[in-house]
């Protein structure tokens, strides 16, 4: 089942990326998709049946808007710190804990944090992420997790779990 779902997903991506319905390109895309699916059958995700849950797609759409809001907010914060050097900065690396269990979820969280100005994901070890933060407001794990991670996590838990 995983091989079949992976093949279909990869083939759809192939068609989207090539934007061609030429029979030769479709044949090559199908062959390449099948080979990749045979080599890595879990490429479509650990449980293909989860792809049919509409709640995940709704959360993904909402997450895009939430992420954009957080990114704009962080951009304004960093811009104000650049324009006004009197604003304090307290840079440091903090350790935060995530509730996400899948590697894809942790990767999405780390990338979301890195794409938000003022924070940079440095490392992921188990359930912990190490984040460089331009203005450390809370050096303890719980406080930093609440400030940085929890907003993203509530959406990513549904999308990736």
SSE inventory with pairings:
Blueprint: H1 2-18, H2 23-39, H3 54-83, E1 92-97, H4 103-115, E2 119-125, E3 128-133, H5 141-160
Antiparallel strand pairs: 1-3, 2-3
Order of helices and strands: HHHEHEEH
Major sheet: 3 strands, antiparallel
Annotation field: number of helices: 5
Q: Could you give the distance between the termini?
A: 19 Å
What does this structure look like?
This protein has 161 residues and is mainly alpha-helical. The protein has two domains: 2-49, no CATH class; 53-160, no CATH class. It contains five helices and three strands. It has a three-stranded antiparallel β-sheet with strand order 1-3-2. Strand 2 and strand 3 (128-133) form a beta hairpin. The model has no long low-confidence stretch (mean pLDDT 89).
Overview features:
single chain, 161 residues, mainly alpha, 2 domains, 3-stranded antiparallel sheet, 3 strands, 60% helix, elongated
Entry summary:
The chain has 161 residues and is mainly alpha-helical.
